[in-house]
Description:
Blueprint: E1 30-31, H1 43-52, H2 65-75, E2 82-85, H3 87-99, E3 105-109, H4 114-122, E4 126-130, H5 139-145, E5 150-156, H6 168-177, E6 183-187, H7 201-206, E7 210-215, E8 228-231, H8 234-243, H9 251-262, H10 264-287, E9 291-292, E10 299-303, H11 307-319, E11 322-323, E12 325-326, E13 335-339, H12 343-360
Parallel strand pairs: 1-11, 3-4, 3-5, 5-6, 6-7
Antiparallel strand pairs: 2-8, 7-8, 9-10, 10-13, 12-13
Helix pairs in contact: 1-9, 2-9, 3-4, 3-8, 5-6, 10-12, 11-12
The structure holds 4'-deoxy-4'-aminopyridoxal-5'-phosphate.
GO molecular function, one term: histidinol-phosphate transaminase activity
Enzyme class: transferase
Subunit structure: Homodimer.
Amino acid sequence: MARMKPQPGIMDIALYVGGASHIEGVSDVVKLSSNENPFGPSPAAIAAVERSARNLHRYPSTDHAALRNAIAGAHGLDVARIICGVGSDEIITFLCQAYAGSGDEVIHTQHGFAMYRISALAAGATPVEVAERDRTVDVDAILAACTDRTRLVFIANPANPTGTFIALDEVERLADGLPEQCLLVLDGAYAEFEPGYDGGATLVEKRENIVMTRTFSKLYGLGGLRVGWGYACQDVIDVLNRVRGPFNLSSTALEAAEAALGDRSYTEKCLSENTKMRLWLTEALRELGVGVDDSHANFVLARFGSAAEADACEAHLKTQGLIVRRVGGYKLPEALRITVGDESACRRVVHAISQFKAVAA
Ligand code: PMP
């Protein structure tokens, strides 16, 4: 066994630690650690899953035409330039496989999503971490970090786990300043939560060096089915389709995503509830003396005075049946990321943190 050495870089990948969904000895647990939709999938998506069961003996579509058409229609995009993946995670993987290898550099931001680094290392490339400014993507720092070996730059907008957002003209300035051989990946996992933001689709139309990634895991409540997609110029999509397995998405996932996309009134309702409770949660936490930046997504980053205080608060929340997230491999050790739940979950969180603060005072 010892002689079977993995490729260079593989052992530098830290194992991804997923969040727990239950707490030993505690009932009525609420999971607020994975930015899931607290209202679940749309009833239309559930019905589609049930319908799809009748055809499970058939292989799924290889070109995902029905879902791509639905996405193109909903977002006003060119269907030929859409690719679907097993979550947007898989699109990130395709990008690294296809565009980055040994000797190449892949830039991600300081608190960037874990998959950027994992996929870069798995492809044999070198991840390069760039500092943020006030927990926000720093375009100048990214441009300064680019070299003639940089092949990919990943930013999430809105960003996870910070919830911060940069304006489209900043994104455009980044795309304009990148070296010629470099693609900008604009991760829009939380794009729906920023009113009026198209995830950067209009920039993709104008520029060949931008790829937009999106997901059905957040607003659409389909994290368990794993559906994501990407939008880019035709040449990039052609490249990505070459590394994509022919049956990467299950028929159940494809049909549920299409149904979820069609149920606009459901997503509108989820969105307006999220906005209302996010603002409420932000204000309530600030009143308790917790540091919270304005969030542009479906979670807030709650910053405490120290890592020890965040640890103690997380432990107290656990005793109250509330699971929140330690983030970024403890690169933000003083922070807890809290998904915006429904009203009752948000009230429970604020109540538990006020208890904790009262005892700590
Ligand atoms: N990008 C970001 C910024 C995320 O937070 C997540 C999920 N946590 C993803 C991508 C991946 O989402 P999925 O693979 O479920 O589409």
